[in-house]
Amino acid sequence: MRILDKYILKEMLGPFIFGIAAFSSVFIGTSTLFRLARYITEYGASVYSVTKLFIYSLPGIIVLTFPMSMLLASLLAFGRLSASSEITAMKSGGLSFFRLAAPVFIAAFVVSIVAVILNEAVVPRANNAYQNVLRYEIEKSRPKTQEHIVIKDVKDGEIERLTYARKFDEAANAMYAVTVQEFDKGRLVRVENAEKAIWDNGRWIMESGIIYDVAPEGQLQRTLRFDKQFMPVEKSPREIAREQKKPEEMTIKELKQHIKVLQREYVKTSTYEVELHQRLAIPAASLVFALIGTPLGLQPHRSSSSIGLGISIIIIFIYYTIMTVFTALGQGGAIPAVLAAWIPNIVFIIIGAFLIRKASQ
């Protein structure tokens, strides 16, 4: 790595870390602390439980601030270099805009990759732990009724069985409109449908159903009707209720599996599909914001850090307003999920390309 690259990255590091701390503080102060205070006043939550909630909320907040921090870092770093005429000296030495911006774009790409990894390996687990503490330690929820539940049985890293129920009543220990799909080395071998399943004496018993055996070619091999049949699921109603996850608690792999199961049952999946595409689109915003912040930082009158912070806030507000609107449209099925997730990035990539073209002339 050349001295110039190290110098530019060093200029960015401070503002980037500051951005993470500042924007995280905003999220924590405006929403997280308010929720935690409400849990204490309404449910009498202990300090220990509230502290765990606070810790579990941090990964999702921090990852969300990566794009914002990259925008602030590129704006402030190049703004300072431009204000002190260092950019002019570099250009007079024959360095083009793209050569100066290269370390910024590479750093932004790395930040995007790190965000994707954290979104897959850390954030879903933290969100799931947050919900478990909230449900079982603070709210101490009574049994609830849930719709469109999916139960996964995994063996040796492969799906062995997928169970879908259109309705799950934890209080009645019952599932309704049940479908059990059994797999052998990834191939569907059996499908069992039942009107309902009842938890009785430590076993699930399906009632009024039919079994389909599937041949390797995908054709039905045998059909068998039954009045009662043991369901090959050993999890208790409480375990099933605890296992159910919201979209933000799932990994990309779990989201894909969940979407496939729901699609087989002709259930609307737009909310899960939007979440799936945003797992890549939101981290990619770090690179998109670098495309915006770098040329803007080279504009005149950028010496003030307050101006750079103000510009960052305006750009972030516009981006997340667009994202919120199109997320709602995508979840409602008005537009395809992939467009709902990526349109904000596409819009800002076009703006960034225009600014880069202008700055490079």
Automatic annotation (TrEMBL):
Subcellular location(s) of the protein = Cell membrane
Bilayer disposition of the protein: Multi-pass membrane protein
Which Pfam families does the protein's record reference? LptF_LptG (PF03739)
State which residue ranges cross the membrane.
Answer: 12-34, 54-76, 97-118, 307-329, 335-356
- Domain of life, per UniProt, equals Bacteria
- Keywords of this entry: Cell membrane, Membrane, Transmembrane, Transmembrane helix
Return the protein name: Permease YjgP/YjgQ family protein
Recite the lineage of the species.
Answer: Bacteria, Bacillati, Bacillota, Negativicutes, Selenomonadales
